[in-house]
Automatic annotation (TrEMBL):
Name of the protein this chain belongs to: Phosphate butyryltransferase
Statement: the UniProt record of this protein carries the keyword Cell cycle: no
All residue ranges annotated as the Phosphate acetyl/butaryl transferase domain in the record: 89-301
Keyword Transferase: yes
PANTHER family: PHOSPHATE ACETYLTRANSFERASE
Classification lineage: Bacteria, Bacillati, Bacillota, Bacilli, Bacillales
Family: Belongs to the phosphate acetyltransferase and butyryltransferase family.
UniProt entry keywords in alphabetical sequence: Acyltransferase, Transferase
A Pfam family the protein falls into: PTA_PTB
Organism: Neobacillus kokaensis
Gene from which the chain derives: ptb
């Protein structure tokens, strides 16, 4: 069952089908082409087939032609495949296809994240814009009545304050594109008070003031917050923290890639969350999930990227 997109008000619906609404929204724009790097993977091909059957997008699949053909089966012999001898070559070719505007979305298949990102950052044919590129993951978590966004779990390793500002701005645009009009942002740390020995707390406080003084707009930021008081009103009240964000955060800004990656995978493996994730800030959205993520997550990520791609 698909949720009516118009029923998603401010991203706060008590419904476990929220990521499904992204699929519906993605079908509403013009049909776009997706370049998939290293498509030779069963979960990637399942997502491609599901997306094709729902008329979500067209695909150009880069990688090992024989393996891709076998995974696709005879029913999908019209899908365009471009052979590449290695994962690095398939990343380069897929990025070049987006650079040349033969595709509007890039998708990571069965290859390490750093290989595709290095091609994306290539000075000659890459997809740089001059802004920071960052990873934004949208989670549907059982028993949580809203979508939760985590950034950056996959690209920026130890972002400085300036980079965190752009990571927040990228996540805020994604939040808006999925219907969260004024996202609440919690810069996470291990504590809720400023400790000069913990850089995450200083950056969080700076981001909060920058937001209050209009240097970062389109969202409400309050931090530092620890994870419990960012997402639980009870935990926030227990510690005497009162703010619009405490307990109600939509966007969790993590201090490092390790914190983000562990949170991302904990939500999936321990909390049985569903995820859709993209890299934004580039010339085109990039579908970027873990290679071990399910075809369902890849389909949600694809839908999220299609929602963000320019018509
Ligand atoms: C969550 C599910 C999926 C996963 O589990 S993913 C697994 C974890 N992720 C990863 O392993 C990837 C982590 N990141 C990286 O490996 C690297 O940062 C990355 C993205 C490959 C870049 O590496 P390098 O090419 O060595 O980077 P570098 O620092 O030497 O910079 C080269 C040029 O690129 C630029 N750059 C790097 N990161 C950027 C960014 N985020 N946005 C915009 N520009 C960026 C950098 O400024 C530099 O530019 P220039 O050449 O000086 O003009």
């Amino acid at each position: 069952m698909l949720l009516n997109w118009n029923a998603v008000q401010n991203g706060r619906v008590d419904n476990n089908l929220l990521l499904d609404s992204l699929i519906e929204k993605a079908t509403q724009g013009s049909t776009k082409t997706v370049a998939v790097a290293a498509a030779e993977d069963s979960e990637v091909i399942k997502a491609v087939i599901e997306a094709s059957e729902r008329n979500l997008a067209r695909f150009i699949l880069f990688g090992d032609q024989e393996k891709i053909r076998t995974l696709l089966g005879s029913k999908y012999k019209d899908v365009k495949i471009v052979h590449a001898d290695s994962t690095t070559a398939s990343a380069e070719l897929a990025v070049k296809a987006v650079f040349k505007k033969e595709a509007e979305v890039l998708m990571k298949g069965n290859l390490p994240t750093n290989i595709i990102l290095k091609a994306v950052l290539n000075k000659d044919y890459g997809l740089r814009t001059g802004n920071i590129l960052s990873h934004t993951a949208v989670f549907e978590i059982p028993d949580i009545n809203r979508l939760m966004i985590v950034t950056d779990a996959a690209m920026n390793m130890t972002p400085n304050l300036d980079q965190k500002v752009q990571i927040v701005q990228n996540a805020v645009s994604i939040a808006k594109s999925i219907g969260i009009a004024l996202p609440k942002v919690a810069p996470l740390a291990a504590v809720e008070v400023i400790n000069p020995a913990m850089e995450a707390t200083i950056d969080a406080a700076a981001l909060t003031i920058m937001n209050q003084r209009g240097q970062i707009s389109g969202c409400i930021i309050d931090g530092p917050l620890a994870l419990d008081n960012a997402v639980s009103v009870l935990a926030a009240e227990h510690k005497g923290i009162h703010s619009e964000v405490a307990g109600n955060a939509d966007i969790l800004l993590v201090p490092t890639i390790e914190a983000g990656n562990v949170l991302y995978k904990s939500l999936i493996y321990f909390a049985k969350a569903k995820v859709g994730a993209v890299i934004s800030g580039a010339k085109a959205p990039i579908v970027l999930t873990s290679r071990a993520d399910s075809s369902e997550s890849k389909l949600y990520s694809l839908s999220l990227a299609l929602c963000c791609a320019v018509d």
